[in-house]
Amino acid sequence: xxxxxxxxxxxxxLCLLLSFVGPSFAAxxxxxxxxxxxxxxxxxxxxESVRKVKVTENNEKTVITTYDKTSGxxxxxxxxxxxxxxxxxxxxxxxxxxxxxxxxxxxxxxEGLFFDGSYIISGSxxxxxxSNDQRKFLTxxxxxxxxxxxxxxxxxxMVERERSAIAAGGTTIVSTVVxxxxxxxxxxxxxSTVTALGGTVTTGIILWNAYDYQKExxxxxxxxx
Length: 225
Fold this sequence. Notes:
Blueprint: H1 2-17, E1 29-34, E2 37-46, E3 50-57, E4 61-68, E5 73-80, E6 85-92, E7 98-104, E8 107-111, E9 118-122, E10 125-129, E11 135-139, H2 145-169, H3 171-180, H4 187-196, H5 201-223
Antiparallel strand pairs: 1-2, 2-3, 3-4, 4-5, 5-6, 6-7, 8-9, 9-10, 10-11
Helix pairs in contact: 2-3, 2-5, 4-5
């Protein structure tokens, strides 16, 4: 229990402490050893409005905390990687109010390697993110199942194309191009950039397809209710 409290405190402390740091940051993973456990911390997002921190404990538990700097809201998503149990806690730093829900079911998660967009699925509970890191937390119903499943398929295809592009052109080229162009720059610009960096036309075409799937995922994210 003490380790769990330390883990949760570490996540929340990182979110709040880093609010005094400017918007620019270099994402990195830090490793800590607490009560014989390996704790890894990583700042996933840090901008003027949101900070998101990920902490893993011996690869058995993952905690992702999102801090809304404007409203003071903290969303803490705890995942037991062994049992697939999920607990979501919402806190408000200003008011002290809190709510939480627990879910026990099968667990699916996928996110872009360099492109943005992801999903977390536990039973009928879906948490989906678009390329702007905007989140929706939805319950699967007959009316939204098509849009949600289409979103999932688009993310799956996007990640598959990312992996294919890495296999064809290498991690450095893919990461550099995606960092340069957060939105599709046009096929000719993309191909010329990839080849100028030493990649192949095939790599550029695969990346273009990945951009298309990211756009498709954003569309279905917008349609999902």
